[in-house]
Every structure is written in structure tokens, then in C-alpha cells.
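Regression check, manganese (II) ion case 441:
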Amino acid sequence: MKPTEGISHFDLRRQRLAQAMGQGVAVIPTAPEQLRNRDTHFPYRFDSHFYYLTGFPEPEAALVVIGGEAPRTLLFCREKNADREIWDGFRYGPEAARERFGFEEAHPIAALDEKVSAALENQPALYYPVGADPQWDARAIRWLNAVRAKARAGVTAPDRVQDVRSLVDDMRLVKDAQELALMRRSARIAAAAHRRAMQATRPGRAEHEIEAELLYEFRRNGAQFPAYSPIVAGGANACVLHYVSNDAPLRDGDLLLIDAGCELDGYASDITRTFPVNGRFSPAQREVYEIVLAAQRAAMDKVRPGNAWNEPHDAAVRVLAEGMRELRLLPGTLDEILEKETYKRFYMHRTGHWLGLDVHDAGEYKRAGSWRTLAAGMTLTVEPGLYIRAADDVPERLRNIGIRIEDDVLVSDAGCEVITAEAPKAIDDIEALMRDARARD
Ligand code: GLY
Ligand code: MN
Ligand code: MN
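Current build output:
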């Protein structure tokens, strides 16, 4: 992947981390390459924290931030290697990387242990992703012991080891302009893929054929990966929340639930749409769909600065629970359904999550026992659903209907901006798009 244009945002993020740390040294490695089988690797994906702070796309790299009055940032990366570059392609090497990505220093990755041990002398704290990888934990202990070995020479070792991720997580929660530009593009590509999927769906085609349409649209627009394994679930498969086999035929009269988003320059989109395989909602499908759509509207009304994280979820649950009562899926009053949480039989997940470099992005949901307060610049999903598995006590016409509607939203000063709005979700809009596509057959 080519590096993101413009390094000033990355520089600023490193400075903010140094400020949050105070005195101390932070070491943030990128992700290792992963073997898939024998000589084949998984497509390489950098570590999100490392990339957030560097924009540097290569494996075998680590960022070191030395905090204090005049913070310094160091990149450790692979050296240039003419032989390897014939096989694997371009690599920056420390000198070009330093210049291109704006570090004070850059060194070969092989020098990391020696340089970090030296940097830790007389520092109060070591920050790194504690517990994320046993090999890095062992390495951190070796660095600390190397410093402690110099005690008789009057050198002191850090007496505090802290997880650097909690500092970076909090920074990542509020997106800056560069991130928002990428997230909007990622969202538009995913919305185009959902439109393409709706246009391509016909009874008799298979789930994997529609998955192929999604992947084609992602890739042709420059997205490097799907942000997660797409869920393309026809009929009863929609009631399996993490259905990913996507290999069943699509049947006339069933709904198709698609949960798919792409990753563009590291940034995820995450959209779910549910629509009829034959292009026309049945009366029962329509009833359930309108309840989920109303729940999403109610949740989005609660997405605004100053509201608590759980307010959108609570609003969605209320509408869904009332819908379950009206559909005669559950006995009792609305208050009883909410109090006893019997709605969880048909709505068992939360209404959203933070979204960014990770599809389930960094950032706490609760702090000191209280839900986080929404603030401008935060990005999240709003994704209510109803999953009605077949059972004797479920009205026959509702059995095996699974519906989720998921959009990506930005908390703005004005409230809630839906960045995935180009994927249709009103029944009339979906049916019109599918009708037009069929007219061209
Ligand atoms: N596709 C993952 C999620 O919706 O959370
Ligand atoms: Mn989601
Ligand atoms: Mn999703």
C-alpha cells in the first residue's frame, strides 16, 4: 500500500502522545507478517496503533517516542536490500523513511534492542502494548534488565511499565480531518458495493455470487481489503449473527441480509442492508423491516454531542421491544419486556460500536463506571436488528426473518451525520433500485 499523502497529521499525533506520556519512552511495534500455510502469507496488515502514529506501511518496524521537554521520535525499519526488493518490491530503508515520514531519527530494526535499552536509562517509565504479544513482553523485560545491570554505574531503570494503548486509544476516539476524509471515502465505496449487490440479486443466484459483486466494487474503487469477512445471508441464515460461509442459493420470497464494509488506507466502513431476493418485500417482511428502520431512526436521534454512549442503544431497544409486542412475539407490557430483558431473544447485540482503523475501533465505552459522552468527531455505527428464529411460539409468517440495518455515523456539532447514506434503506428506494436493475435484464 502506498503511504498516505501528507505527514503532518501523523507528526501531530506523535507530539500529542509524547505530551500525554510526559517523561518516559514508548515503543510501539507494527504487526508481524502471518503465515497462512506453508510458503503463503496472509495479506499484510499493519498494526492500527503503529499506523495511526506513523503512516508507515511496512512490516518489521517499530516506533519509539522519547517523551519529555523536547520529545524525539525514532523509526526502526528494514534496511534497503537490493536482492529482496527484486522478489518483494520496494522498501524505504531508514534514511528515506526518516525523510518521507518525518522522524527525528531512523535506524535498522536490528538496532532496536540496543537503542531502546540506552534510551531507557534514567527514565521513569516504559510504555508499550503490555500483554499484546508474549515475544514483545519478553523483549521489554530484557530491555529493563539491561538497564538494571548498570545500577552500580549509577544508572536507574524505569520503575513503571504502562500500556501505551490506553493513551493512543483515547486519541483515536476523536477523528481528525485526515481520518474523516478517509472514512467518508471508505463509506462511499461500501455504499456503492451495497447498491451493486442489490442490483445483482435474483432468485437462483448464490450468496457467494453476491459476495463477489461486493468484493469487486471494493477493489475496483481502490479499497485494499474488506474490513471484515462479509456476511451474505439469505433467508434463515440471516438469524446466524456471524454467518460467513456465504454458499447457499438465494430463494424467491426470502430476504437477503448483507453486512459488508471495506478498508481504505486502513479505515473501515461497516454497512448492513436487508432486502428481498425477488425485489419486493412481503407484508410480513415489510412489518418487521419498518420496526427495525424506526429503531434506527430513534437511535440516530440520540447521536449528538453531550449524550451518553448508551442513549442510542436504549432508544433502539425501546422501539424494537414495542415492535416485538405488537408482532405478538413476546407477551407482557412494554415495561415488562424491557425490565425482564425478554427482547434479547430477538435482539441480542448492542446497537453500535466505535469505527475507525479497526472496524470495532479503539476507545473505551465506559469510564469510571459511566458511559462515555459523545463528542464531535467521534465515529460509530448504528445497527439495530431483529432476528426471528423459527419456533412453535413464533407466528408462522414471521419465522426465519432476520433483519439488520447498519449505518456509519459521525457525531457532528449539529448532531448526527450519516456517512453511508448512499446505500438505500427506505423500502420504496430499495424496490425502485432493484426494479430498475431487472428492467435492464
Ligand atoms: N460487521 C461487524 C459489525 O457489524 O459489528
Ligand atoms: Mn458493525
Ligand atoms: Mn456490520
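Comparison notes: The two ends are 38 Å apart (CA to CA). The mean pLDDT is 97. No diff flagged against the previous build.
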